[in-house]
Write a structure and sequence with these properties.
Blueprint (H helix, E strand, L loop, with lengths): L1 H7 L9 H24 L11 H4 L6
């Protein structure tokens, strides 16, 4: 969701009408997937996310 909103401007539709809006969202989803595949093929992994304080307390160090 965050990637769609930040990188592809999915918060607002630039069209009026359900059909055009659905097409815009579908094309944005395809664009997100293409961007992810290209990133994966380049060998760039996902960003390391933070571990919450509660999760750090778990045995095994999640």
């Amino acid at each position: 969701m965050s990637q769609g909103v930040r990188a592809f401007g999915m918060r607002r539709s630039r069209y009026i009408g359900l059909a055009k809006t659905a097409l815009q969202q579908t094309l944005a989803a395809v664009g997100i997937n293409v961007a992810r595949v290209v990133q994966w093929l380049d060998g760039r992994g996902q960003a390391i996310t933070r571990t919450s304080r509660f999760a750090r307390l778990a045995p095994g160090g999640l």
